[in-house]
Amino acid sequence: MDSSPIWPTNPTAIRAMHHTGQFNIKYQIQARQLCKNHPDAHYCAYLFRYLREFAILYCDYVCFIAANDKHKIQIGEGVATSTGVRNKKSLVGINSTLVASDHDFTKLSLTPSVIFFIDVPTTIEDSFYHGNVFVSYKDTVFQPSNAIRHATEFFNAIQLHYTFIPPILCLYTDGGPDHRTTFGSVQISLICLFLRGDFDFLIALRTAPYHSWANPAERIMSIINLGLQGVAIMRDSMNADLEEIFKKADTLDEIRAAANKNIDLKNGLHNCILNIQQMLHSRTERLVLHENHFQHYDPANDQNIDDFFKIILEIDKSLNISETTAEILSKKKDLQEFLKTHCRIRHYSFQIKKCNNINCGICKPIRLPLHVFENIDFLPDPVPSNSNTDCYKEFETIYRTDTTEQFRPTLITAIENAERAPAAILTNTKVRDIIQCFQCGKFRCLYSEKALTAIQKSQFQHVIDEWDYSCGSPLVPEDHALYNVLF
Fold first, then answer.
1. Residue 324 · residue 188 · CB < 8 Å
2. Could you report the per-residue pLDDT of 425-471, keeping only the tens digit for each?
3. Number of other residues whose CB lies within 10 A of the CB of residue 266
4. Which of 127, 130, 108 shows the shortest CA–CA distance to 118?
5. Taking the CA of residue 18 as centre, how many other CA atoms within 13 Å lie in the half-sphere pointing to its CB?
6. 58-87: buried (b, 16+ CB within 10 Å) or exposed (e) per residue?
7. What is the pLDDT of residues 36-58, one digit of tens each?
8. Segment 296-352, tens digit of pLDDT
9. How far apart are CA 133 and CA 238, in angstroms?
10. What is the superkingdom listed in this entry's lineage (predicted)?
11. Contact, 114 vs 67, CB < 8 A?
12. Judging by DSSP bridges, how do beta strands 295-296 and 131-139 pair with one another?
């Protein structure tokens, strides 16, 4: 498009003098830094601050991990495919051409997973971006990211990183389904990690929705991109029979189903990307964060995960690794008792602490000094400041006090918009009477848990005789005897 009618090509040329109009416009490159906001963002920011201050308070005993998964790296099928990272100029031979396929409809891919062991500073003002980074490249087909796999890999990485495992573990992750602390599968996995690592105290905290950028592990992704720049990858070939079977499977589910029927296909797919994984490991180990070279760890296999899960059978022998939905877990009495006595569950956090009860058959003896263990309390919930309700209280003023989630913005909104009547009451078998709106003339059903007594019926009759009901208005005032009886 020729911009000369409204914009001079060269502002110093003579013809630019003829452009006398002024427009409030400018040239600008589109940035991809737009973030979606969430009502709990400020609330979660304070939770993260509390977690960091907690880690500083017990820095001699803490392992602080930030973890995250990067976007998938496509693996080429018969042609080298770019990793998808923005490229810069690279050194190549004088007669070479640096080129790769740009299509993204490949079947196989790798998922980079980052485990960032943070060096806890001495003050909250200091940086939390120093430490050691562990990276793995997982096969998306047979090594999908889920809660139990993450927990297994956390434990394996902790064993690699520490000679003596600290007694306190702090985890900070994003809010994906593999890290959402309200999910039963995540809670089960964290309990396994707590027991397997023999931790005295564990805190798992997640970011607010759409705010994964707040995770320190996110900054590691930009460094990993350096190792993926100018790289194109392609899997090795399998034998003709396996290639024919693989050709007929298009989706991940179809590939997994075919591999379940033919173990040779699963082994073949594993072997055909092995060289790619080793090459990426080699490139990743050359990356550095503050003079600390990145390290790679092997993804957990199915046997590792099964062995890791078995420790939770000490709590409830009926637990199954494939049955971790909230509905199923709610029926496990022994597990629910453990959650009640050892855990604190919040919308954005899950915490576990040893009970230090000699009669407990689950908790091992505490590893912390007794005076330190007795001084540790669960991470508090943010509470508005008395002087400024737009901010929350500081950690030192609220730690070791009883708090609840009552000030979480989304919870406040949910309570305000919620139906006052319990959902179980709103059924046809519990309709006790009807009332007519004097404005629209429509009839509304009235519900109660039990049939109204003679006195309650008399009170209700007095109500409808005294005033005209309108749709949406409360049936009776809050101080009336029928307020929590009739809905």
1. yes
2. 777 778 878 877 766 777 878 888 788 888 888 877 777 777 666 66
3. 18
4. 130
5. 9
6. beebbbbbbbbbbebbbbbbeeebbbbbee
7. 788 999 999 999 999 999 999 99
8. 999 998 899 999 999 999 999 999 988 888 888 989 999 999 999 999 999 999 999
9. 34
10. Eukaryota
11. yes
12. parallel
For 436-463, give one letter per residue: b (16+ CB within 10 A) or e: eeeeeeeeeebbbeeebeeebeebbeeb
- Grouping H, G, I as helix, E, B as strand and the rest as coil, residue 466 is helix
Tell me phi and psi for residue 118, to 5 degrees: -85, 130
Strand partners, 62: 168
Q: Are 116 and 65 in contact (CB under 8 A)?
A: yes
Q: Are strands 168-173 and 201-206 parallel, antiparallel or unpaired?
A: parallel
Q: Which residues of 267-288 are buried (b: 16+ CB within 10 A; e: fewer)?
A: ebbbebbeebbeebbebbeebe
Query: What are the distances in angstroms from CA 105 to CA 77, 129, 232, 248, 254?
Result: 9, 36, 15, 15, 15
The encoded tokens of residue 23 equal 């427009």
CB of 214 closer than 8 Å to CB of 348: no
Nearest to 189 by CA among 149, 135, 138: 149
Residue type, 73: I
DSSP string, 219-284: HHHHHHHHHHTT-EEBPPP--HHHHHHHHH--SHHHHHHHHHH-HHHHHHHHHHTHHHHHHHHHHH
Residue pair 145/138 in contact by the 8 Å Cβ criterion: yes
Q: Would you say 191 and 154 are in contact if contact means Cβ atoms under 8 Å apart?
A: no
Q: Are 316 and 332 in contact (CB under 8 A)?
A: yes
Burial class (CB in 10 A: 0-12, 13-18, 19+), 296: middle
Kindly state the percentage of the chain with pLDDT values over 70. 89
CA distances 397 to 50, 126, 242, 433, Å, are 11, 21, 64, 52
Q: 376: closest CA among 357, 339, 359, 351?
A: 351
Alpha-helical regions (H) of 58-146: none
Phi, psi of 121 (to 5 degrees): -75, 180
DSSP assignment of 318-362 equals T-BTTB--HHHHTT-HHHHHHHHHHEEE-SSEEEEE----TT-SS
Which position has the token pair 């690279």?
90
Q: Are 414 and 40 in contact (CB under 8 A)?
A: no
Residues 6+ apart with CB under 8 A from 135: 112, 113, 114, 115, 224, 281, 284, 294, 295, 296, 297
